[in-house]
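Tip: read the tokens left to right.
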């Protein structure tokens, strides 16, 4: 990405090489590949340097649009301060009702916009359900065949999935803000070489 600078002001952002008319001269798109940086700078074209120091994981944050700045030698693109996504649900309020904004199928106190906690807990439930599904038939058979019981290892595994799922949901619920949620999901390398996260993992049935 390049920027055209005229009289020390950025006048155009160039996302792809293209023919440029600068002053009274038409320059072909090939100059972006063939010319050196100093040659491009001489006619006011600068390659954009990206500063992502303020950019955060979009799973947890809403980043600002990039702003461009020319300091006389370089054009930089930077992000502003990222805003954490809401970790808790936003609810419909009495004020929404008073303003006529409450949908006819909603009531005060209903969820207006789901927060990260609700979304993450739903995902945990879906993952746990997916892990339990292959062994559901043991439970069905045990309920229909009087002399059959679920094997001990299967019963133990299914209980461990539910226990861990509940623990994970509780940890998510107890997270006080979005950074705390992010920390739960952040993997770090341990002294023994393993890579783990505070939230942990749902157990897998060993074959």
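Filled-in amino acids:
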């Amino acid at each position: 990405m390049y920027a055209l600078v005229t009289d020390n002001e950025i006048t155009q952002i160039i996302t792809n090489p293209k023919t440029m008319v600068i002053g009274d001269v038409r320059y072909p798109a090939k100059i972006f590949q063939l010319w050196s940086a100093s040659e491009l700078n001489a006619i006011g074209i600068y390659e954009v340097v990206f500063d992502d120091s303020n950019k955060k994981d979009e799973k947890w944050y809403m980043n600002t649009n990039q702003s461009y700045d020319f300091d006389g030698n370089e054009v930089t693109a930077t992000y502003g301060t990222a805003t954490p996504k809401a970790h808790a649900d936003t609810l419909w309020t009495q004020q929404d009702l008073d303003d006529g904004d409450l949908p006819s199928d909603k009531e005060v106190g209903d969820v207006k916009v789901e927060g990260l906690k609700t979304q993450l807990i739903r995902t945990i439930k879906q993952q746990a359900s997916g892990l339990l599904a292959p062994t559901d038939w043991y439970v069905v058979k045990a309920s229909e065949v009087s002399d059959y019981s679920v094997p001990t290892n299967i019963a133990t595994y299914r209980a461990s999935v539910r226990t861990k799922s509940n623990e994970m949901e509780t940890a998510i619920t107890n997270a006080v803000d979005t950074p705390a949620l992010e920390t739960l999901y952040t993997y770090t390398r341990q002294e023994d070489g393993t890579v783990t996260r505070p939230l942990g993992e749902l157990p897998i049935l060993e074959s």
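The longest strand covers residues 45-51. The chain has a mean pLDDT of 96.
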